[in-house]
């Protein structure tokens, strides 16, 4: 039961995030403006975020974050239906691979929580580390070509979104000590700062005009960072032996590659739409620009 309920909430969150993204995209005007229906998409995505927070309050980052990646998969058939097209063989193949990898990871690891409190000294050290890495990515982005600039800014955005998920997990556990308890700790306020910085770096990545690079970087970095922080700082553990650990490593690499491939499909369709704005098919559901308000 400790896995079923948070897993169900995470899957529902992924579905709502994909739906909210799709509604917002199909409700935008050709000039980039927004309509009343666009706000419906925002509301749907917001419900998805709260479901993610509920899932994190009951389950581990190791369980919830891989399941949130299913939003990439859920958007595929919805987008294809609205575009009146069939999914390609490659999309089906990598969608199935992604699903199997997520299922295998959860079933093999059976993630369990350990300590839930975050020591202030560890939090401060984490903040310093994140700032140093982030500064390195941002400074490096100014010294390289547009292609690598998109990669570095996209990685920075994914890093920050992963940290945001980690902070949300930390805050949700504090509510167990009273509704006012989280407001006496810095994590809840850091979420606002991190979320704002994530949006800024995401927009800088978009400005590099290389979605095929920035979008996969964002998509992969978020769960990787959140899961790593859950293990290192919250003491979350995967119940595996040495052999199972090797298998899990292969599964995670395959899952990451599948996400990159699916994200590139979405980015390529977005680029094609921007190049041919009179095309019948609207912009794709997985455009990173439309995902910005989700987190």
Automatic annotation (TrEMBL):
<feature type="region of interest" description="Disordered">
    <location>
        <begin position="273"/>
        <end position="295"/>
    </location>
</feature>
<keyword id="KW-1133">Transmembrane helix</keyword>
<protein>
    <submittedName>
        <fullName>Uncharacterized protein</fullName>
    </submittedName>
</protein>
<feature type="compositionally biased region" description="Low complexity">
    <location>
        <begin position="282"/>
        <end position="295"/>
    </location>
</feature>
<keyword id="KW-0812">Transmembrane</keyword>
<feature type="transmembrane region" description="Helical">
    <location>
        <begin position="150"/>
        <end position="168"/>
    </location>
</feature>
<feature type="transmembrane region" description="Helical">
    <location>
        <begin position="215"/>
        <end position="234"/>
    </location>
</feature>
<feature type="transmembrane region" description="Helical">
    <location>
        <begin position="246"/>
        <end position="267"/>
    </location>
</feature>
<feature type="transmembrane region" description="Helical">
    <location>
        <begin position="89"/>
        <end position="110"/>
    </location>
</feature>
<feature type="transmembrane region" description="Helical">
    <location>
        <begin position="122"/>
        <end position="143"/>
    </location>
</feature>
<feature type="transmembrane region" description="Helical">
    <location>
        <begin position="188"/>
        <end position="208"/>
    </location>
</feature>
<keyword id="KW-0472">Membrane</keyword>
<feature type="transmembrane region" description="Helical">
    <location>
        <begin position="44"/>
        <end position="77"/>
    </location>
</feature>
């Amino acid at each position: 039961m400790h896995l079923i309920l948070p897993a169900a909430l995470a899957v529902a969150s992924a579905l709502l995030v994909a739906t909210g993204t799709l509604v917002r995209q199909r409700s935008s005007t050709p000039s980039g403006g927004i309509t009343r229906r666009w706000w419906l998409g925002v509301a749907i995505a917001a419900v998805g975020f709260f479901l993610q927070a509920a899932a994190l309050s009951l389950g581990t980052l190791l369980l919830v974050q891989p399941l949130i990646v299913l939003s990439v998969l859920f958007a595929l058939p919805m987008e294809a239906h609205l575009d009146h097209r069939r999914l390609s063989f490659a999309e089906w193949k990598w969608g199935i691979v992604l699903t199997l990898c997520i299922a295998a990871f959860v079933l093999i690891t059976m993630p369990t929580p350990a300590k839930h409190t975050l020591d202030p000294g560890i939090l401060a050290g984490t903040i310093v580390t994140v700032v140093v890495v982030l500064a390195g990515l941002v400074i490096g982005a100014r010294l390289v070509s547009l292609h690598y600039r998109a990669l570095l800014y996209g990685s920075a955005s994914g890093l920050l979104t992963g940290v945001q998920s980690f902070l949300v997990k930390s805050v949700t556990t504090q509510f167990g000590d009273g509704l006012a308890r989280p407001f006496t700790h810095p994590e809840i306020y850091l979420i606002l700062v991190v979320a704002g910085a994530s949006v800024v770096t995401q927009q800088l990545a978009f400005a590099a005009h290389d979605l095929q690079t920035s979008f996969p970087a964002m998509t992969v970095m978020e769960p990787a960072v959140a899961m790593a922080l859950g293990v290192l700082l919250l003491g979350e553990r995967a119940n595996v032996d040495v052999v199972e650990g090797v298998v899990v490593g292969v599964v995670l690499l395959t899952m990451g590659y599948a996400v990159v491939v699916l994200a590139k499909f979405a980015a390529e369709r977005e680029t094609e739409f921007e190049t041919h704005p009179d095309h019948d098919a609207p912009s794709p559901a997985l455009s990173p620009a439309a995902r910005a308000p989700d987190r």
